[in-house]
Amino acid sequence: MKAKHSAKDRAEQAKKKVGEVVDHAFGAGTTTTAEGRVDQAVGHAQASVGHAVGNRPTEVKGAMREAHGKVEQAEGRVEHDFAAFQARMEKEVSTLRGQMTDLKSKAASATGEAKAKAQAQMDSTKAKVQAVEARIKTAIEEAKEERDARIASLQQEAAHATGEARAKIEARIAQVKSDFNQHIDKLKQTLEHIKQTMAG
What we know:
Number of strands: 0
Radius of gyration: 24 Å
Strand content: under 5%
């Protein structure tokens, strides 16, 4: 029994590694979206067979798997969108930091009209920085709301499951918490970089 458990753990670890490679190659969320499509298709087929042969438990189990597949697909798309948003924000912040550094240098060495022009450009850049800051704060709040909604949905699903199915859902809850919290932490780091840009 222990050897089986060990082999199962190794298989799960291998699956996770493959998923990481796929996500790295094709973008965050690709693996989750693909798994969702498979679960949706298999669940639909299982529900159809259960319905056709009059096996209600099989039909219900298939319908649940199909629904779970749809949720996985949505999670994959959200993960992809979060990663793309994070990359855009990091790029914008980096660009704005560079602009602000250049403008501060120009303003420090300029006089008269050139100094006023540099100051006006700095004010414009500060406004852009504040807009990026507002977008990131909004994204953090949206991520928290999305995380809480996903967890609530999974908890409701877990309440109706038993045994191994329940354990898988509980593991998924932990993974969703971890994924969202990592995303939120990255956004907070980017927000911190913005504050440094404004302070520096």
